[in-house]
Amino acid sequence: MERDGLGPAARGLRQYLLAVAAKLDAPAWFCEVDVPAGAYVALEQRLARFPDHETALLWDERDGWAAAVESATGDDLIVLAYLGQDVLPPPEAVETFVKDLYREGYPGRPDPPDFRRPGTPDGFDDRLAAHAGDPVGRA
For the sheet containing 38-43, what is the strand order? Predict the structure, then answer.
């Protein structure tokens, strides 16, 4: 299944990611709107327990948000925890997840939540499209 890269679901995903990035004051982000959709949000701060590794948030339309660090080679990302609340939680919930992560807590859950199957007609694209008109920083 393909998702129209200019359609309401794709625009909604971009607005949602902009809102999350604004909450986190993230320096950069990237998203792929095709099915399965995914995103990468760079975080400036490193974790004390992984001082030599870049930290990032990953998002996909199956499992939602996850915190990750780069591998020693920098070629791969290692997921540390999944937020596990919803595939599209409010940006404030993502912000809290990241703050708890930097407080050296172990927020979220260790295993993928497997919220949904990409491409399934379950209303997910409608949920994304609902964010299409949101001003930046508010989803």
Answer: 28-32, 38-43, 55-60, 64-70, 77-82
